[in-house]
Amino acid sequence: MNPGFHADAASCIGSSVRVPATLLPIKISFTAPRASQTLLDPMAEPKENALMEKIVSLCKRRGFIFQSSEIYGGINGFWDYGPLGAELKRNVKELWWNTMTRQRDDVAGLEATIIMHPKIWEASGHTKTFSDPMCDCLLTKKRFRADQIEPQSGIAYHFIGAVQISEIVRIASERLGEKWGAEYENKILHLVPIMMDQTKKAEEITRLKASDDACDRLLGEVLGNNPKTKQCFEPFAVLLKPGKPPESARKTAIEFYEQRGVTLPTLLGERTEKVENSQRFNPENGSLLTPPVPFNLMFKTYVGPTATEADIAYLRPETAQAIFAQFKNVLETSRQKVPFGIAQVGKAFRNEVTPRNFTFRSREFEQMELEFFIKPDEVIEAISGSVATVPETGHPGKPQPNWGWQAWHQYWVEERVRFYEGIGLDHSTLGFHRQTAAELAHYARACVDILFKFPFSKKDESGNVTGDELEGIAARSDFDLSQHARFSGKPMGVFDDELRAAWGKLPEEKQKELWKRYYDNRKNYLLKSGVESEPAQKQANDDANGLAKGQYIPHVIEPSAGVDRLILALIANAYFEEMTTDEKGKSETRVVMKFHPRVAPVKVGVMPLLKNKPELVKKAEEVRDLLRPWMNVFYDDGGSIGRRYARQDEAGTPFCVTIDFDTLGEKPELKDTVTVRFRDDGRQERMAIGELLNWLLPKIR
Ligand code: GAP
């Protein structure tokens, strides 16, 4: 149960009082880092979320997560895992791998390279479309994801530019003496833009010089002599929130034009406009932002020494594409048949515009992805007569031969939920988002995001925490394999005996119906992927004719999870504060990390009661060596036993084993028994050393 989402109030455990994190002063929003933080200062996130602050601090203090390159000031969007974090991460990846591959007959593994042929990213669409809209603050240069800017309302003050008119004013006011006044300053302001326009300048000066007005004649003379002025005609605007004085907008604008080299700027062309829910202004200072431009998130590099355009390659932004590219090799070497999956865990890299929320959005992260290949619905119908329908919620049970994409998709959503629940994320800490038709990619049939309610997650209109994405489970049709078939020129279809045999037995009407549906789907895909109408029809025709020969391109269901987000969810979920009060009434707040034993970095702490009693130490070392081949054990003989328990609680160790004098036989009936102490409730049980391993193993696996 996530402490942030406990409904109940503080509860008592022995002498300790638990303070649920709901009672901590949590403010939800985390904002993006300053522009100057692009590379440096990664820890300098705004300190707005007290629980997140505590979690970040614990992660550093206990060695879960450090900022990368900390001794050089850090690098934004990159994180290192310390001793406890590395164990936690390893456990999570291993559990995923075991669940998704070793414990199933229908999934094979893959470990591909990070840098692949750049054509892969053309085929997948990443080269063209893997971008976020990005804009910069015109004043501070801070960079924003345009779609993530909080909408603002207020009065926008627009300016067409600014000029430094002090020199003109000085000469004119000197020469005109007392006659000089605001009226003439306004006149200069009006004249300056005309003077900047070379096509109008001469004519205007002639007009001024011929004027009846002495001041106009003087201005004509001064301006005609080209006094030194600096000017900037870059339009700028500032959004003023209700209640703020117009002067503050002008002050911001003056700052902007000063940055562009106009000293003592006089603002030109001020006008105001009412603005509602606009994402065009920096929420922090009201400054206008640059128009959004797409920013490709792939990290570029060069392969080989020449570093020309032809050598450009990319660090993979997802692990999935290698699976599609190696589909045929895995199929041929693993003795798998559709339906089957290929799983991969590995690094991915995205040059995120605004990495944020600790490790949640990083620039280097790990993914755990499964591509599960299934038969198209037309093939299922040909073989099984009809496609099974399953309810949109709940686990549909053991896979069946008549499952189409919808049943498989539902199956994988539920399997993934079971996985999360199995490592300690209670259902109530999760959220779900089924993508709408408008959100779905053109080739996708459905996508369900599994969310976790992080301390920084926002609330919806009804005040419920919605959560942020841990994993997406997408039904991606045959898009990916089809793209790689087109771009590589290598066939990606499979041959299915069962289909060929079934097709021949179908009534002609049914064959025609299935043929037409398959043809339409293929044609649609090809047209939407930019293939011209005639070749698209020809290709779709060939593909549909393939059904009779038992050939088709598999569709895919993709459960794609982020390791680092899951680690952050597990840490937030495990974080508990307990207030303990000793006999003298002294209170202390302690952190207990209540990790599920399966993911806990250390499974058991082994402790001799005293470190200066060689018999106790010898026995404790025996217990450590008994358990060590099976699990991560931490041997601790430093300080009071209470302190040692507290240290293990903070590390999230679910069990501690203490070797005392009874273990040595002080009470003969307790010889070779130890005390097992439970992290979550402080309970202690006596257990024979010989029983320990068998008692522990099922709890941690
Ligand atoms: N192949 C599909 C794919 O990559 P995605 O939704 O872009 O889909 C899948 O990424 C998962 O990878 C996300 O649900 C998230 O857990 C993780 N992820 C994506 N971008 C991330 C980032 N910048 N930092 C940490 N994790 C990220």
The fraction of residues assigned to DSSP E strands is 15-25%
DSSP E strands, number: 31
* Overall geometric form: flat
Mean pLDDT: 90
- Please identify the oligomeric state: single chain
> Would you identify the regions where 5 or more consecutive residues have pLDDT less than 50?
1-47
Structural class based on helices, strands and sheet pairing: alpha+beta
Helix content: 25-40%
Q: Would you give an account of this structure?
A:
It is a single chain. This protein has 21 helices and 31 strands. With 701 residues, it is of the alpha+beta class. It has a seven-stranded mixed beta sheet with strand order 5-17-18-24-21-20-19, with helices on both faces. Strands 28-27-29-30-31 form a five-stranded mixed beta sheet, with helices on both faces. Strand 25 and strand 26 form a beta hairpin. Helix 2 (83-102) packs across helix 18, helix 7 (198-209) packs across helix 8 and helix 12 packs antiparallel against helix 16. The protein starts with 11 loop residues before the first strand and ends with a helix. The model is unreliable at 1-47 (pLDDT under 50). The protein binds glycyl-adenosine-5'-phosphate. The site of glycyl-adenosine-5'-phosphate has 18 residues, from strand 18, strand 21, strand 24 and helix 18.
Keywords:
single chain; alpha+beta; seven-stranded mixed beta sheet; five-stranded mixed beta sheet; 31 strands; 35% helix; binds glycyl-adenosine-5'-phosphate
What is the secondary structure topology, with strand pairs?
Blueprint: E1 12-13, E2 16-19, H1 50-61, E3 65-67, E4 79-81, H2 83-102, E5 107-109, H3 119-124, H4 126-129, E6 131-136, E7 143-145, E8 152-159, E9 161-164, H5 166-176, H6 182-196, H7 198-209, H8 214-224, E10 230-232, E11 236-240, H9 246-259, E12 266-268, E13 271-278, E14 293-296, E15 300-302, E16 312-314, H10 320-325, H11 327-334, E17 340-349, E18 364-374, H12 377-384, H13 405-422, E19 430-434, E20 446-452, E21 468-475, H14 479-488, E22 494-495, H15 497-505, H16 508-528, H17 533-546, E23 551-552, E24 555-562, H18 563-574, E25 575-581, E26 587-593, E27 604-608, H19 614-627, E28 633-635, H20 641-651, E29 655-659, E30 673-678, E31 684-688, H21 689-700
The chain binds glycyl-adenosine-5'-phosphate (GAP).
Glycyl-adenosine-5'-phosphate is lined by residues 318, 320, 350, 352, 361-362, 365, 367, 369, 469-472, 560-562, 564-565.
